[in-house]
Amino acid sequence: MSQVIYFDCFSGISGDMTLGALLGLGLSLEDLRAELAKLQITDWQIASRQEVRGYIAGTRALVTAPEQEQHRHLSDVRAIIEASTLSERVKRQSLHVFTMLAEAEGKVHGYPAEEVHFHEVGALDAIVDIVGVVVGLELLGVERVFASPLPLGAGWTRAAHGWLPLPAPAVLNLLSAAGAPVTPDMTPAELVTPTGAALLAALAEFRRPSLRLSRVGYGLGKRELERPNVLRCWLGELLDEPQSHIHTHHHEHTHKL
């Protein structure tokens, strides 16, 4: 039976929350560091610690990387990933996430994906987040990814270009490209980040599967919110499902990875 993961996004999703949840499922931090070292980029660090958000204990992934002077483009990120000794599957899936992210950001600003300046999403920490999650899924033996509907929050966020309405425009572009289900939620915070949205848009099927549950992991966000700022991940073996469920448009999309 194939190993699958279900992202239970009751408080949204971000890159570091996803890494934290995978570490909470038992992903080895040492193994993760060893794989990320194959990227041939320096100055980043990753650590983890146990914390609590709203009475729920979990794992906080701490990715640190200096802000760099040069702004990367999609071609720069592609060159870094392709020059690495990561597995072909990890390279392909990571590039798929970054390409969707660049297309969504470009659509917001009105220019092609290749011209997007990755000051926000191609910075070192985003490369570590995205490649780290794809690597983590492979190390955990995950063959398929599923996700819940997403609460998007409301209000405003400060971005490199100035103030943007929440949910961020790039997040809506990513989720509309994936046909993702969203729930009405007016929490005044950015619950789903562009990185989190790109990971799910590129890798996930948006439904809760039948599975034999083996482990649960909790990844914590930076802030304390009125609700627990936590991403819950369920890991298990996929159980047989009716064929009618399996042949969805998005399932076909995910298997082009």
UniProtKB/TrEMBL annotation:
This is LarC family nickel insertion protein. Keywords: Nickel. InterPro entries: Ni_insertion. PANTHER family: NICKEL INSERTION PROTEIN-RELATED (PTHR36566), PYRIDINIUM-3,5-BISTHIOCARBOXYLIC ACID MONONUCLEOTIDE NICKEL INSERTION PROTEIN (PTHR36566:SF1). The lineage of its organism: Bacteria, Bacillati, Chloroflexota, Ktedonobacteria, Ktedonobacterales. It comes from the Bacteria. It holds the Pfam family Ni_insertion.
